[in-house]
Amino acid sequence: MNVSIKQFEPGELPTDEDDRRGLSEEIRSAEAHFMPVHLKYTMQRTGYLGNVRVVPDDNEGSEVIVKGKIIDSDGENIELEIEVFDARNNKWFEKSYVETVGVEQQKITEIERNDRFQNIYNEISNDIIEYRLKIKSTEIKRIKEIAELRFAKFMAEDIFSSYIAKDKEGKIHLRKLPSDNDTMLARVRSIKARDDMLVDTLNNYYDVYYSDIWDSYDNWRKFRSEELESIREINRKALTQKLLGVAAIIGAIALGASKNSDVVNSTGGLRTVMIAGGGYAIYSGFQTSKENEINKEAIEGLGASFETEVEPVLINVDGKTMKLTGTADQQYGKWRQLLKDIYHKETGFQSN
Amino acid sequence: MNKKLTACIIALFILVIINKAAYSLNTYQKTQFSEDYQGVSETIVALNITRKKYQKLLLVQKASPKNKIIIKEYSIFIDFLTFQINNYCTKLIKEYGEESVQDLPCSSNHHLEANTNDSYQTADEKIESLDDEFMTALGEFDEMLLIEDEKIAQINQNKANRGSGSSNGKEMLSGNGTGEDADSNRDDNKEAGKEKNATSKANNKNTTSQKSRSQGQGKNKQTKNKSYMRDKLDQIDDDIVARQLKEAAEKETNPELKEKLWDEYYKYKQTIGK
Fold this sequence. Notes:
- By secondary structure, chain A is of the alpha/beta class.
- Chain A has helices spanning 17-20, 25-46, 118-134, 137-155, 157-160, 183-256, 261-266, 268-347, and strands at residues 3-6, 52-55, 64-73, 77-86, 91-100, 164-166, 172-174.
- Chain A has a five-stranded mixed beta sheet with strand order 2-1-3-4-5.
- In chain A, α4 (137-155) crosses α6 (183-256) and α6 (183-256) packs antiparallel against α8.
- The mean pLDDT of chain A is 91.
């Protein structure tokens, strides 16, 4: 069974200023292009599915379509919302996938095979395969027939609209099948073969894009994760210093407030040292906190640098996609008219 | 009496001569008629055999998703062969009637229909013409995708070259900017195109010399003209269909089929030349 993965929706950036630091819509868009390609490689490797292709939008004629939305992605965390439908508009499942990869998890990455968040891709792929294996062969045949007729209807609505019907829930049902030697269907199949080739060509461009940004995207996530870990480490250190300082001052006050005058008298010097040390520790804590600023700037710098690197590559692939799909749309319009004309000449019926 | 007899004999003799001449002319026309028919029908058979071969090859190629370019080329070539077969079949039907194509791989729908709108084209011819237009549009689309795939292959090749360190220092230094990459790719494509054309011409010349040798000695004027025309046509670059036709002709072992395919190749080259 062939699977189409629609380009992911980039989703919204976090509202919190600290969480959003170093992230941008451009980076999200780059990820929305990158993730479906990596999912494609993961699914292809399983060997359980037919052709797996990334498509720019809802592709009429897809047997199974995977739609994804990025809920969160900051280099350390990923949250994806995935929906899978077949050609009947039957939803296989809708599920959220979350994964966190910290610095302590030394990930060995490999292009096409092993992403930092490989578990999430494996999980999605396994869920799709698990669902696919539950479907009977007769159902698969029906899905393929409906997929073909949906494409036929997309190309020649008047001729093929009577073969399938949509119910109230939006699910597509088969009404009848064209004969094996239907000449119009044969022509539509010729176009479908071209449509598949077009998607293959688009995928070649997506593959180039994917490999072009692999290193910089992998590094961006790794370094961003390290910077976030540094911030957390600094915050922990600063907090400890502040707490120790506060504890020392409280200790000194407690000693001074003792009812035992001997203790009060004998610890006079010590209390002074404790108060001074505590004050210094609190001051150091605040100073340490300021070190975060460097890391925050580093995160912003990393984001800006990655964005600068990825933006032209993204514009390039989007430009190629738009050009190709635009040319194809024009061509499809021409084919639609020709199909209409031929149908009219063959049958004498005038399609609208 | 003698004069009358002589006149009768002369008249009879003249009649015999006229009859003979008429018979000879008729026989000649019939021979010409059947030679034309024979030639076209043999071409149809040759093209159909080649089409079947390539349909099988296409199935084999489709089993391996890596060979997308070859698959596209074969599809275009098969479409072209179908188009040519249909053309020849239509020609035979027009000249010799429907019975003439009964044993040939021609589609059966060629019935004439009284048409109110168009007096010079039958309904089947119109469908055929629309189908041809449809096939041409498919072919154009295939060509467009093929060009895109070649561009991608070039990009990947450039990347591989950069990866293996075989490129020059300038490329290494300018490797970061995608805009620059795109420009350099365009330039590389141009260069590659030039090289391809040069190779294609060289190949064509080799093929001509090989063909000239194989045609052997004792050429008459007609074959000299044919050879001259072919030499001229070899100077025109091959496109996908021409390339496939040439390949099919080169691979063909049956000498008659081989010659038919060469004829088709040069006929096709004439259309490119125009």
